[in-house]
Amino acid sequence: MAKIKITVEARVTWDNVYSHTMEPDSRGRWARIAFCGNALKTFTKPKIAHFQIAWVKKLIVKEADTGKFHVTYYFPTKEKTIFDTLEEAKAAVEKGFRYFIKMSINN
Q1: Per-residue pLDDT for the chain (107 aa), expressed as one digit of tens each?
Q2: Range of the domain at 84
Q3: Is residue 58 one of the residues assigned to a domain?
Q4: What is the model's pLDDT at position 3?
C-alpha cells in the first residue's frame, strides 16, 4: 500500500491580552495568545474554528530592568520555556506547532 503524504498550512495568529503595547496594563498584566485557525462562514452565522496553542506572558527581571517572555505551550504537552525577546518566543511557538502538525499528520 502506498503511503500518502498530506500537507496542511498551520496558520498561527496572535492576539493581545490586557495591553496592546509592550507595557503592562494598569494592573500589571501583559500577555499574547497564539491561535491556529480562523472563522468559518456558514449559512446562518460565522463559526469560530480556531484553538489556542500558546500563552506568552512578559516577566520583568528587576535586577536587570529587562523583560523575559514566558511561554506556556498547549500542544502536545504543557511545556514552559523562557525567551529573551517576544520575537524569539513567537518564532519558537510557530516552529514547534508546525512541527507538531507535520508529525501528527504524516506518521
Answers
A1: 566 555 556 678 888 888 888 888 888 888 998 888 765 544 555 555 667 889 899 887 776 667 789 998 887 766 778 999 999 999 999 888 888 877 777 65
A2: 12-105
A3: yes
A4: 60
| In the chain, beta strands by DSSP E | 12-17, 31-40, 47-61, 66-73, 80-83
> In the chain, which ranges are continuous DSSP H helix?
86-105
Rounded to the nearest 5°, which phi and psi values hold at 15?
A: -130, 140
Count of structural domains within the chain: 1
Residue 1 lies in a domain: no
Task: State the cell numbers at 105.
Answer: 499528520
Distance of CA 46 to CAs 39, 42, 57, 60, Å?
6, 6, 30, 39
Query: Is residue 23 in a domain?
Result: yes
User: Does pTM top 0.70 for this prediction?
Assistant: yes
How many whole angstroms separate alpha carbon 77 and alpha carbon 86? 21
Give the separation between CA 80 and CA 70, rounded to whole angstroms: 7
Structural domain includes residue 4? no
